[in-house]
Every structure is written in structure tokens, then in C-alpha cells.
Amino acid sequence: MAKLIYSMLTSLDGYAEAAEGGIGTGAEVPEVHSFINDLFRPVGTYLYGRRMYETMVYWETAHTEPGQPPHGLQYARDWQAAEKVVYSTTLESVSSAKTRIERTFDPDAVRKLKEEAEADLTVDGPNLAAQAIRAGLVDEYHLFTTTSVVGGGKRFFPDGVRLDLDLVDHRAFDSGLVYTHYRTR
Fold first, then answer.
1. Fold assignment, 1-7+27-140
2. What is the pTM of this model?
3. 42: buried, middle or exposed (CB in 10 Å: 19+, 13-18, 0-12)?
4. What pLDDT sits at residue 29?
5. Where is the Bacterial bifunctional deaminase-reductase C-terminal domain (predicted)?
6. E-only strand ranges, the chain
7. Are 96 and 56 in contact, with CB atoms under 8 Å apart?
8. 14-23, 85-94, 161-170 — which is least confidently predicted?
9. List of residues 6+ apart from 176 with CB closer than 8 A
């Protein structure tokens, strides 16, 4: 059975998205990007909400941009190789291969997807992840914590949910970004 992983950049005060935008820096350096590439290369399926998909679809054509660094080219190849499921009631079509639209997030369908998958899955974006967390579907959490405190926005973890986690791994980068990996008990 595959694992469902939730991973995002988060501010020091726990926001995956600040009310006014950006949540800090540290992830754009090659060392961090290469680490993320290696960490998520085995992922077979990405679960996205519409907004996160619209951000990530950049990787469908990123390899065609002149001057793309090696870690960017590698991420584009890995992203293109994975399946993508976009949960949206408004998106009419997708512009990437290996992508399908689902109109609603169905926890039972995701459980079945986990059971049948040969490779791990990720759920990306705080809104969609909140649904998966509340349904008890998330097996692992990978946080990339910036050095910024943003004071508000969309939280990495949804309010009203209690989770007991085990720390599996951690790493601090020269950029100040801190990676922590937790597993549900």
C-alpha cells in the first residue's frame, strides 16, 4: 500500500500561504531544490486542488526554457512522469499529460488509490490537504520551514485536528530553511 504524503513550504508560524502572498525564502537555492527532487522522485501521483495545479503545471514545459538549471530539468522530468489528479469544480480542462480532473474529493476513492498504487502519492495545497488530514488519509508530513513569521493566512495544519506524529528525519540548510519529516502514529 502506498503512502499519502503532505509536503509544503511553511512559515515559522505555521502558514503554508500568507494572507498577502509569499512566506519567505530558502527553497529556491540549488541545494534545497536538489534535495526536494531526490525526496519526491519516487512519487507516482500528485493530488492537487485547482490553484496548486495551475502553479505546478509550469513543470510541463519548464524543460523548454533556455537556461533551466540541471535541478530544474530533473524536476520537470520527474513531474511529467507522474500521474496528476486535479480536484476542481471549475476547471474545464487540463494542459498537462497524465492528468485527470475529479469534481469532488472522495476520501474512499483516495483510500482505494493508495491501496492500488505502486508508488507513493502526495497531496498538495493546504485546502486539499486539510480534507485529506481530516479524513485520516495522510501518512507522512514533510515540512520545509522558512525563517519568516507572516502572521496569518492558510495554515499548514487545519484547525480543529489533533495529530500525534513521530519525527523521522530533519535537516537544516545554509539558507535557513529547515526540513522536518514526520510520520503518523
1. Dihydrofolate Reductase, subunit A (3.40.430)
2. 0.95
3. exposed
4. 87
5. 3-178
6. 4-10, 15-18, 45-49, 83-87, 99-102, 121-124, 140-145, 153-155, 165-172, 178-184
7. no
8. 14-23
9. 26, 146, 147
User: Which secondary structure element, helix H or strand E, spans residue 127, and what is its range?
Assistant: helix 126-134
- Domain ranges for the chain, please list them: 1-7+27-140
- Where residue 26 falls among pLDDT bands split at 50, 70, 90? confident
- C-alpha dihedral sign at 164, 144, 87, 122: negative
- Note the pLDDT of residue 154: 94
Residue 1 has a CB neighbour count (10 Å cut-off) of 10
Query: What is the rounded distance in angstroms from the CA atom of residue 147 to the CA atom of residue 52?
Result: 23
Residue 121 β-bridge partners: 4, 45
Residue 44 CA to residue 2 CA, distance in Å, equals 9
